Amino acid sequence: MRMVTSGIPVILAQPYLPGMVRRYLGHRVAGADIRRVDWRPGMGFDSDEAMLAELAGRECLLFAGMGSDGNTTARAGLFASLTRAGARILPAVFDAALLAEDVTLGHGTLVYPQAIIDGGVSIGYNTLIGPNAIIEAGCVIGNHCVIGANVILKAGTRVESSVLLADGCHVGEARSFPDRPFITIRRGVAVRDATRIRDDMASNVMIDASVGDTIRVFR
């Protein structure tokens, strides 16, 4: 895992906890070359061609939130545009986050302050780990995920790509079936309220208190 110490291009796209991002940049990236990307409702982040061409073949940092649509799609689209253009997006680990030595982070993944990530954890690219999250040993998290503040993933949990877990979710605990000891959250799940998840979740399911804590499938 490479730590950034010198000025490189930094893309800000409605970053999550912008004050923390400014603090990180002030402490870790001297003379950062800041680029701001606007949000276009219904269309996602607007990355202009000139910026993409300029970033081709260069290392950069990307701090992207979820936009007003509140899902992982916009972040994934911007990341894809940058990587197609040839940009090499580095991971960023904020001060006071604690990671075991054998943790694996993909390109562009962000780990916010006070997060704890235990041994043997693998996290894909462009995933955001919120402050005070606890990721226990052996968890696997896919690409383009958002793991909110104070989320707990118990040991061995598998989270597939493009999953959103709201602040305060608690995933996993001792299971009744010894041959299936771990929980898997399939691709595209969105949990928008603090929820205790005790069993596997199928792909493209949403839990949202605004619709009465029902579960529905995206179409």
UniProtKB/TrEMBL annotation:
Coiled coil start-end: none
InterPro entries assigned to the protein according to its UniProt record, in alphabetical order: Hexapep, Trans_hexapeptide_repeat, Trimer_LpxA-like_sf
TM helices/strands, residue ranges: none
Any Pfam family the entry gives: Hexapep
Family in the record: Belongs to the transferase hexapeptide repeat family.
Protein name, UniProt field: Uncharacterized protein
Organism encoding this protein: Bordetella hinzii
